[in-house]
Design brief:
With 168 residues, the protein is an all-alpha fold. The protein is 82% helix and 0% strand. The protein is built from nine helices and no strands. Helix 6 (92-104) packs antiparallel against helix 8 (122-142).
Length: 168
């Protein structure tokens, strides 16, 4: 019993330490972003990601989550996606497009540094990840309605099949 209690206490304190470390990183970044928003600095740097927004038919409000996800990672990008959704700036399709792109191409700086330290080529890593993410997301954007209809059809068939299995 003592082992279980010790393990639980160690797990709790380890988790609290991790949350504290994450908070020490994320909170200053969030404050920094809010300051940039307040002084309209973000408006001046949107031009960097604007071609991507146009390619993916995304609203300007998707720029910040995309930039954050590309630079800082998918977790931070997800936090900004949630914020944009709560503010009513992104549609369901926008959310899917941003999430697919970031799933394929997130944390470019951090991941690249890690793999370069192991001997990989930074140019190759970044270019392959970007090109692959651009192609897949472009296909998704242009065939979104067909893809969603197919997914819904597959889901309906699975539901129907499950109902038949449950009857028998």
């Amino acid at each position: 019993m003592e082992f279980i209690l010790d393990t639980a206490i160690n797990g709790l304190f380890g988790s609290l330490k991790s949350v504290g470390k994450i908070a020490m990183i994320v909170i200053p970044i969030m404050v920094f972003i809010e300051v940039l928003k307040a002084y309209s600095v973000l408006e001046k740097i949107y031009f960097v990601i604007e071609p991507l927004l146009k390619l993916f038919r995304l609203p300007r409000e998707a720029a910040l989550p995309l930039m954050a996800g590309l630079i800082f990672g998918i977790t931070f990008g997800a936090g900004l996606i949630i914020q944009a959704v709560r503010e009513g700036h992104l549609s369901g399709k926008d959310i899917v497009v941003v999430n697919v792109f970031l799933a394929l191409c997130h944390s470019l700086i951090e991941d690249t540094f890690l793999f370069v330290a192991l001997g990989a080529s930074a140019v190759t890593l970044i270019s392959v990840r970007l090109i692959f993410a651009l192609i897949i997301t472009f296909i998704l954007v242009h065939y979104y309605d067909r893809i969603m209809a197919l997914i819904n059809k597959i889901g309906a068939n699975k539901t129907k099949n499950m109902q038949e299995v449950n009857k028998g």
